[in-house]
Amino acid sequence: MKSTAAEQRPASGQASASRYLQLADRLVIADGLTAGLSYTVIADKLGRNKSTVSREVAAHRVEGLYLPYQADAAAAAARSRPKQSKLVTNQRLRKEVEEGLAKRWSPEEISHRLVKDFPDDESMRVSHETIYQSLYFQARGGLKKEVAQSLRSGRTCRKPNRKPGERYQRFVDPMLMIADRPDIEDRAVPGHWEGDLIMGELNKTAIGTLVERTTRYTMLVHLPGGHDAETVRDGLIATMTTLPEHLRGSLTWDQGAEMAGHKGFSMATDMAVYFCDPASPWQRGTNENTNGLLRQYFPKGTDLSIYGPEDLEHVAQQLNGRPRKTLGWDTPAERLRDLLQAQ
């Protein structure tokens, strides 16, 4: 059974849920005019201002009659549409954003980096929210779908195997715990690194990750022979000895079995190794965050043995060329360059 105008109208004195008049509102206006009610009374029924009703009737009266269905169609056609995004009208800006996303930069990183790269060009400004909208609303001039897929995936939580406060001696060689590490929390002194492994399918393959705490500079360790303690030790030594001595301060790692050779590593590099408390990934927060970024390149569940040293170097270069909020939108490569030039 068809609903009547009276059934569609809101209760007297109750404001309409929409900013704009709906068809039900227009039917109430038409009924009120037919009954000879004043604009004030009709407005009260709608829960709106009298001027809203008077403007509506004046705008949509045809030969002295107010036709609600015709008025509703005309209003919908006349309603202003959203203006086009800057990423549609400014092709140069769009190209810069797409290149940033292709390098797996986040919208926020792109937005702030544009200010640094084009300090005098106001046309090269776009908020991270606009980038997100262009990614998610393709019909409004969104960016390419394959570019949108460059955004990082959500992070997952690790399940602790033991109580956080529980501690035991994991290796034959005594461990130096993070509580024994010199106070480097202000990150003022460069050369202190955090490390970990990112694991491949069924934990059969791995890549070593090293991040310098001051610059966030990342190095990746190729582990083609597996991730046993000896292989990891030799890979870390080969990577760390490429650095000047003043950038070899210390290494912080978790208590994974791959670090059983930590004493041999320390003897070869003259770097102390400090171990985190069990189930405390936040004690290597810089490395944990970096590993999250690396999962854009090395998704979970993939065979990491297919990546050679050249592949790892390419990924590290991309990551080190990525502007970071914590660095004032400088890149890790720029900060490391400044460190080396200051020596």
Uncertain parts: 1-16, 153-160
Number of strands: 8
Going across the biggest sheet, name each strand in turn: 3-8-7-4-5-6
What is the string of SSEs from the N terminus onward?
Answer: HHHHEEHHHHHHEEEEHEHEHHH
Please identify the structural class as seen in this structure. alpha/beta
End-to-end Cα distance, whole Å, is 86 Å
Q: How would you sum up the global shape?
A: elongated
Q: Helix count, per DSSP?
A: 15
Q: Name the beta content range.
A: 5-15%
Q: Give the mean pLDDT.
A: 84
Radius of gyration: 31 Å
Helix content: 40-55%
Largest sheet: 6 strands, mixed
Protein name: IS30 family transposase
InterPro entries: Homeodomain-like_sf, Integrase_cat-core, IS30-like_HTH, RNaseH-like_sf, RNaseH_sf, Transposase-Integrase, Transposase_IS30-like, Transposase_IS30_CS
Domain Integrase catalytic: 178-340
Function: Required for the transposition of the insertion element.
